[in-house]
Design goal:
The complex is a heterodimer of chains A (about 325) and B (about 300). Chain A has about 325 residues and is mostly helical. Chain A contains 13 helices and four strands. Chain A has two domains: about 5-40 and about 105-330, no CATH class; about 55-100. Chain A has helices at about 5-20, 20-50, 55-75, 80-95, 105-120, 120-130, 135-140, 145-150, 155-190, 220-250, 250-270, 290-295, 305-330, and strands at about 195-200, 200-205, 210, 215-220. Chain A has a two-stranded antiparallel sheet with strand order 1-4. Chain A has a two-stranded antiparallel sheet with strand order 2-3. Helices cover about 35% and strands about 30% of the residues of chain B. Chain B contains eleven helices and 14 strands. Chain B has helices at about 45-50, 75-80, 95-105, 110-120, 135-150, 165-185, 195-200, 220-225, 235-245, 270-280, 295-300, and strands at about 5-15, 20-30, 35-40, 60-65, 70, 80-85, 155-160, 185-190, 205-210, 210-220, 230-235, 250-255, 260-265, 285-290. Chain B has a six-stranded mixed sheet with strand order 6-7-8-3-9-10, sandwiched between helices. A four-stranded antiparallel sheet of chain B has the order 2-1-4-5. The mean pLDDT of chain B is about 90. Classes of the chains: A mainly alpha (about 325), B alpha/beta (about 300). At the A-B interface, α1 and α8 of A face α2 and α3 of B. The complex binds adenosine-5'-triphosphate and magnesium ion (MG). Adenosine-5'-triphosphate (ATP) binds near residues 16, 19, 21, 46 and 193 of chain B.
Chain lengths: ~325, ~300
């Protein structure tokens, strides 16, 4: 292999990040989080056994269905919430009718829930912790001068940094799966990889429920899809944070800006669907696993292909801005 | 010189905003010479060096390193150049060796053996596996030089390399650069705002002020041009000035006070002028050969810019 090559440049970036021990920090946070969630689950199970005497998911599901029905019967609930409840009710009924446990106990289900909950905030946050200073750190330390006066074209250096973001996104996904599995399994048991799970519910914001495309998947296949979608979202967040890192040249400001993007996304999608063109915002399209679960999207007209397209366009635009800026600008 | 220049600037201008930071400068550096780049704070030395290493684009003009255009053939140009811009900026959280390994991967054909070679060259063997954050300034400086030399460059650029070094360190650096040039025949560009330092180290000097190069020449030429200052103490300096101004032997005459005139003149003609003054009835009290320093030249060239 002749130097300088892309592998060598990525090796350099990995060396810099590894010595800052960011991935280790993230793993420690993960272990703490997952331990807490696992313990909470454990308490919940204990409580149910105490109440019901047994742990029968059919009884539990039936109870939940009754609960939904009661709530729907009561007056004064908002239309949007009514739709959500109706859809949820139908989904649960479908599980019960087909004799499939939606929450098969075990570590794989824990992983499923963790990814489903973590895709919009926790996982993107982790990639920001690891990657936010990949460019701005070089400005802050002044090393950008040494780096960019070496015989390697600037676009190659940024490309290596971006590929390193993708590499660490993959490592983050792997670490999350491993930690979730290892820690939650202690309490919940390690099996359930092949438990069936339903996907393909059609849900529109208007609340139509269709069973046309529903099919069962083994858990491992469903998880693979979940992790894949989480990878996409995390990689897009990493790409945006590279652009911000190039533009603002200051790590603290960059992290602040990224946090604003993430939190604004969660806020906007909970505020609701009146502002329909907000569906073109990148941060409203982070909840991809939602589509697997068949929940109603925050805004009508959103679907998995739609969200993937929007994410792709935003990522490409951010890359274009980052590369243009990084290769053209004077470095002081 | 018949050798091809290793560094060549042609009519380089840099405008930032509306300010002309570098104003149409040109110079060349040849193999085997130490080129001093001298100017007060804010003269534009670092800006020029940033353009040389491709960090910023000149607004107009051309820069070549060993015949390669820094903008169009960036990679080839940078393969022949090693530099420290302002401070030796290295990864503080890595060890010295890891730093060198990182920059080695950005160069063609630099193996572990070469890395060890430059470590020995700058005499950092004992501390090379420690984190750079634990290094003293002098050690960082040496690591920076090691980094710059990794790729066996034809041009070495050091921006104010003596900043923060003690007199011993400065002397050691001087010896090091001299030996490096003698051994490898590379070109070195050293910027500084300290005259005495450049005087001792450089073969040729460019003096820069307000973004312009006011003078380029060998150190000996510059020193030679200086030795002909003569100060006169006379009874009436106003009338004497008129006589000096008319004389073909006086290049410059300047009134200092009622009785003193500074001149730049041919020393051999002092007695002729003395006679002329006496004939005009002006008493000559003292004639003093003024040994000017580069400092004086600098001040006269840069219009009294502050210099250390
Ligand atoms: N990014 C910038 N924007 C505007 N002006 C700048 C910029 N960088 C440098 N300058 C100006 O350019 C001039 C030259 O600066 P430069 O750093 O090249 O000086 P220098 O000769 O290296 O000085 P010193 O001896 O202090 O290092 C200064 O007046 C400075 O204010
Ligand atoms: Mg400077």
């Amino acid at each position: 292999m002749s130097n300088p090559n892309m592998i060598g440049l990525i090796h350099n970036e990995v060396m810099k990040i590894a010595s800052k021990k960011r991935l280790a920090v993230v793993i420690v946070i993960l272990v703490i989080l997952v331990s807490m969630f696992t313990y909470a689950q454990y308490r919940e199970i204990q409580e149910k056994i105490e109440k019901q005497g047994t742990l029968d998911w059919r009884v539990e599901l039936q109870q939940e269905i009754v609960d939904r029905q009661n709530r729907l019967a009561s007056s004064g609930i908002q239309d949007e919430f009514r739709q959500f409840l109706e859809f949820d009710l139908k989904q649960k009924q479908y599980y019960l009718d087909n004799d499939i446990n939606p929450n098969y106990p075990g570590a794989p289900t824990f992983i499923r829930i963790f990814f489903s909950q973590g895709i919009t905030l926790v996982l993107p946050l982790f990639i920001i912790i690891i990657m936010a200073d990949i460019v701005s750190g070089e400005y802050n330390d002044g090393t950008i001068k040494t780096l960019l006066s070496r015989p390697v074209k600037r676009w190659k250096i940024l490309m290596a940094k971006w590929l390193t973001v993708l590499l660490y996104t993959s490592m983050l996904m792997a670490a999350t799966v491993i930690v979730c599995y290892g820690v939650s399994g202690i309490v919940l048991g390690y099996d359930g990889w092949t438990a069936p799970i339903l996907t393909g519910f059609q849900a529109s914001a208007s609340g139509e429920f269709s069973t046309e495309y529903i099919h069962t998947l083994p858990m491992w296949e469903y998880l693979l899809m979940s992790v894949g979608l989480a990878w996409v979202v995390t990689a897009v967040v990493g790409t945006i944070s590279i652009m911000i890192s190039v533009l603002v040249k200051n790590t603290a400001t960059g992290i602040g800006a990224m946090m604003a993007v993430l939190i604004a996304g969660t806020l906007l999608s909970s505020i609701g669907s009146s502002w329909t063109s907000s569906k073109y915002l990148v941060n409203l399209n982070f909840d991809l696993i939602n589509y697997l679960e068949g929940q109603a999207p925050p805004i009508e007209g959103m679907s998995l292909p739609f969200s993937l397209t929007i994410l792709g366009i935003w990522a490409a635009a951010c890359l274009a801005v980052a590369f243009w800026n990084f290769t053209q600008k004077d470095m002081y | 010189m018949s050798l091809k220049p290793t560094v060549q600037l042609k009519n380089v201008t840099k405008i930032i905003g509306k300010k002309t930071i570098i104003d149409n400068i040109s110079f060349e550096i040849y193999p085997g010479e130490v080129f001093g780049f001298l100017g007060p704070n804010g003269a534009g030395k670092t800006t020029t060096i940033r353009m040389l290493v491709g960090l910023i684009k000149p607004t107009s003009g051309k820069i070549n390193i060993c015949g390669f255009d820094v903008r169009k053939q960036f990679v080839q140009a940078m393969q022949r150049l090693g530099s420290i811009v302002e401070n030796p900026e290295l990864y503080k959280y890595l060890s010295g060796r890891e730093n060198l390994q990182i920059f080695a991967r950005m160069l063609p054909d630099v193996d572990e053996e070469r890395i060890q070679e430059v470590i020995d060259l700058v005499d950092l063997t004992a501390r090379i596996d420690d984190q750079v954050r634990t290094y003293s300034l002098g050690m960082r400086q040496r690591l920076g030089i090691a980094q710059a030399l990794l790729g066996r460059p034809d041009v070495l650029i050091l921006d104010e390399p003596t900043n923060g070094l003690d007199p011993m360190g400065i002397k050691a650096l001087r010896t090091f650069i001299r030996k490096l040039v003698d051994d490898t025949g590379l070109s070195v560009l050293v910027s500084s705002h300290i005259l005495s330092e450049i005087e001792l180290l450089a073969d040729r000097v460019a003096i820069m002020s307000h973004g312009k190069i006011v003078k380029v020449g060998s150190v000996s030429d510059l020193v030679g041009a200086l030795s002909s200052g003569v100060d006169w103490r006379v009874s009436d300096s106003f009338r004497a000035l008129a006589i000096f101004k008319e004389s073909p032997y006086v290049q410059a005459a300047e009134l200092y006070d009622d009785h003193t005139i500074h001149t730049l003149m041919d020393e051999g003609r002092t007695s002729i002028l003395n006679e002329a003054l006496m004939k005009a009835g002006i008493e000559v009290w003292t004639i003093e050969r003024k040994v000017q320093t580069l400092e004086d030249l600098f001040i006269s060239l840069t219009g009294g810019d502050h210099i250390v």
